[in-house]
Amino acid sequence: MPSNRTAWRTGILIVAIAAIGVAHYVTPVQHFLLHNVWQRAYYIPVLLACAWFGLKGGLLVATACAATYAPHILLHWGHSQPYQANQVLELGMFGVVAVVAGALSDRERRSRDELLRADRLAALGTLAAGMAHEVKNPLGAIAGAAEILEQDYPAGHPRREFLDILREEIGRLTTITGKYLGYARSPEPEVAPLDVNGAVETAVALVGKSAAGKSVTIETTLDRSLPKALADAGQIHQALVNLVLNGMQVMPSGGVLTLETGRDGNDVEIRVRDRGPGIPKGDEDRIFEPFYTTRPGGTGLGLAMSRRIAAAHRGSLSAENAPGGGAIFRLRLPAATRAE
After folding, report:
1. Which pTM was predicted?
2. How confident is the model at residue 339 (pLDDT cuts 50, 70, 90)?
3. Cα 90 from Cα 184, distance rounded (Å)
4. Distance between CA atoms of 52 and 72, rounded to whole angstroms?
5. How many secondary structure helices (H) and strands (E) does the chain include?
6. pLDDT above 50: residue 46
7. CB proximity list for 278: less than 8 A, separation 6 or greater
8. Are 229 and 194 in contact (CB under 8 A)?
9. Share of the chain above pLDDT 90, in %
10. What is the pLDDT of residues 228-270, one digit of tens each?
11. Does residue 340 contact residue 285 with C-beta atoms inside 8 Å?
12. How far is CA 101 from the centre of its chain?
């Protein structure tokens, strides 16, 4: 269906340009007012192209209109230099109109796509949270039954390993449902002056053992003159742990994970750099979408939750590919106003 619509629209534009061009060439030069009408009529396909195909389409059609109109100017209006110059300037106006209208059309299209995406994600998040809530209660019942069965299958029993597998999978599902519910019910932050360097050190200490087990070395470069941030300590801790775990997960064979703190204008910035494969081109924002993940078994909620936390603090979380490989995540938080 989209390809058919594109073909129809392209055909309409071609016919319109051709029809206006023919009208110019067959209209005698003494019909000055008619030529003014045909001259202005070229803006119709230009504006249609901008509306249908954006800036690139508008510029392409503006070029086609100029190429169609230019021979007419040279052939029929050489005797009137002032009017010919005016028409030549009109060719440039085709491009100006295409740039302005095309840019506005592209911006409107991006805004519409973002609204549609937000609506879909909101609906998907509500559905996932509802499912997680419904699954949570049965999981509790299954976990209780497994505890009772442990009495019949003590350690060393031939079938105890199956019970251990059951308990492990129950724990995994409980963690996943907890993430879904945590994302859906993320509370408003209770902000207070926060020592960002201390928050980084706490997060690193928490995941240190896990990092060592994965052959990941965590290095920190902390700006000791950094002012405090205005933030919720618990939520920022969660965001930092998510970022560190994400960095570890993209380096399955180990490597160096670097955390730095510093200033970015009036904001406090925390940078987390991994040495993984980097971010696929065009996915710098998509990786923050809920449920988007390239890792088998991943929930796709860690980065989404971290960006949501940053936005709730009137800060930001962005990502970019680092020179030499890997990716850099930048968590920006507003600096607290200090009385001292």
Report:
1. 0.52
2. very low
3. 55
4. 28
5. 8, 7
6. yes
7. 321, 322, 325, 326, 327
8. yes
9. 32
10. 999 999 889 989 988 998 899 889 888 999 999 999 888 999 9
11. no
12. 25
Chain-centroid distance of CA 23 in Å reads 47
Residue 21's nearest CA partner among 78, 66, 53 is 66
The token pair that represents 79 in the structure block: 């005797």
* Extended strands (E) in 265-308: 267-273
100-107, long-range: CB within 8 Å, 24+ apart, which pairs? Answer: 101/46, 101/47, 101/50, 101/51, 101/58, 102/49, 102/50, 102/54, 102/55, 102/56, 102/57, 102/58, 102/59, 103/55, 104/50, 105/50, 105/51, 105/54, 105/55, 105/58, 106/54, 106/55
With beta carbons less than 8 A apart as the criterion, state whether 132 and 177 touch.
Answer: yes
The full length of the chain comes to 340
Backbone angles phi, psi at 277, to 5 degrees: -75, -5
Describe the strand order of the beta sheet including 216-221 as a list of residue ranges. Answer: 216-221, 255-264, 267-273, 327-334, 316-321
Give the Å distances, CA to CA, from 318 to 34, 177, 288, 304.
55, 26, 9, 11
Question: In 232-274, at which residue ranges do the beta strands (DSSP E only) sit?
Answer: 255-264, 267-273
Q: 276: how many CB neighbours lie within 10 A of its CB?
A: 20
Encoded amino acid at 74, one letter: L
CB burial of residue 323 (10 Å; 0-12, 13-18, 19+): exposed
Q: Which region among 33-47, 105-119, 177-191 has the lowest average model confidence (pLDDT)?
A: 177-191
* Cβ atoms 65, 46 nearer than 8 A: yes
CA neighbor of 190 nearest in space, from 228, 132, 232: 232
User: Please, are residues 228 and 335 in contact by the beta-carbon 8 Å criterion?
Assistant: yes
Q: Helices 43-76 and 2-26 sit at what angle, rounded to 10 degrees?
A: 30
